């Protein structure tokens, strides 16, 4: 089966369903041709996922397809862009129809939800590698960047922090959990993250800086702080408040370990953003309107570096051991 | 060495040299932000190259960097687009400074020639895989597509046909060649193709259909014929006329074998295009102005399929053996 057949069979749909008005030419020519709306800038991001490194090779293919696109859409969300389309470059050792059907199904379902059609790409034989490049648009000069945080700004996260890392601990066998529903929820948080596109777009003109959480709150926040030339103070209890269920399940851990764990864990794919205190009511209203939890977890300060305190106001060391070193 | 260090060390340059006015935000945020010119459409293409499949692992890294970008720029050329920028996703098993310096040097030199800056991407540990996605712009509705060929149109190629495949035969040891200068030229044609960007842009409004030659003239022409619903008649002698030096070196081959070889060989990365006979003078003038050889090799006919004739008007069978079956 040739590469063109592969693309056509699994990655296009009857009558190119899912193509939006912005797609002038889709799959099948030398280039895809997109028509952004007048006056809009183009936002572009690209992430490469390698089997055995970024995902388990036996990951449910529908979830893998979802996640490969979701992590890219999350970058569009972080800059406040509206999706236009994406390209997929896919290397596979073997072509298995059932796997491809589920993989493309998971990917195209998420694409459809966000009006982000697949417009081109490449497939080849090789070690399993998934590279998506995603394109979005946003009004000129309105991109949310990492460099806009100012001392006095509040620091926020969307969704829950730490759940994806807990899901990874379950899949790795670092942790066992009797509560099947919670276990399923945590694994889904790892394998099927929700890109916060609507939230990112609504935060244009409100947030002073934003990025998405992929490598863990602590490390990712460092990028905002470095780009903005500021420091941050984090309320550890507010971070834990994003996921009461997780911390109840890990109640045997001291609070400081819970906080350090939440700040270290990756794969959250939530938005981390800053905004002036005057925006608190507007941000709460946006979260409520979108039914997306938004939690204020600290504030931006002059200087540099991150300080974290627990419920007693005591500083939290950030190098506390995680599952693999703790019972 | 972390992925961010890797990117910063080899793939950015002091003061982001090479960024054009179209780059509002380059490497270092969640997304790159590009500003296409008003009224322009966006052209996008993506190619994935896997070590051992698309290139020899011991390929000169500067040429590999050049080629990885060139094959993508060639797709922009084929639709008549002007480059805006590209993203690079790179998986490497090991990080070797000397290799990366040469690889990025070859890639960024070509990028600079075509004002096509690197604006983002991803690097990761994994089996060596190079995925570039390239973005260009062109006036609305003026993209050169595969679907516009009409019976009576002339069929053209730029540059030389078959030389890249001959270079591959030399590298594979299928063929030996005493002429060192010719050998070097043929290998360079394989390893460092020249994307025909200026030609593609000048052909907007003149060519009726176009694509770039990657898999071999015969197979690639099939895509134009299928998309346009037409057939083609090829003058084999005109194809050979694109590279007198090669066919002189292969003078022991019967002409029909030479013709079949030229039509089967891949990696030419030249433009294949069609145009009405009324455009002959305009096309000759463009080729002369750009110093790019442009050869008329046949014509589009009603019906379907490809017929090829030799200098005696005899049909050429297209399944004649290549180097590996011929002394």
UniProtKB/TrEMBL annotation, chains A, B:
Pathway: Cofactor biosynthesis; thiamine diphosphate biosynthesis; thiamine diphosphate from thiamine phosphate: step 1/1. Mg(2+) 2 binds at residues 47, 75. Residues 150-309 form the PurM-like C-terminal domain. Keywords: ATP-binding, Kinase, Magnesium, Metal-binding, Nucleotide-binding, Thiamine biosynthesis, Transferase. It holds the Pfam family AIRS_C. It is an enzyme of class 2 (transferase). Mg(2+) 1 binds at residues 46-47, 122. One of its GO terms (molecular function) is thiamine-phosphate kinase activity. Mg(2+) 4 binds at residues 30, 45, 75. ATP binds at residues 121-122, 146, 214. Residues 28-137 form the PurM-like N-terminal domain. Its EC number is 2.7.4.16. Mg(2+) 5 binds at residue 215. InterPro entries: PurM-like_C_dom (IPR010918), PurM-like_C_sf (IPR036676), PurM-like_N (IPR016188), PurM-like_N_sf (IPR036921), ThiL-like (IPR006283). The keyword Kinase applies. It catalyses: thiamine phosphate + ATP = thiamine diphosphate + ADP. GO terms for biological process: thiamine biosynthetic process; thiamine diphosphate biosynthetic process. Substrate binds at residues 54, 267, 323. Belongs to the thiamine-monophosphate kinase family. Catalyzes the ATP-dependent phosphorylation of thiamine-monophosphate (TMP) to form thiamine-pyrophosphate (TPP), the active form of vitamin B1. NCBIfam families: thiL. This is Thiamine-monophosphate kinase. It comes from Corticibacter populi.
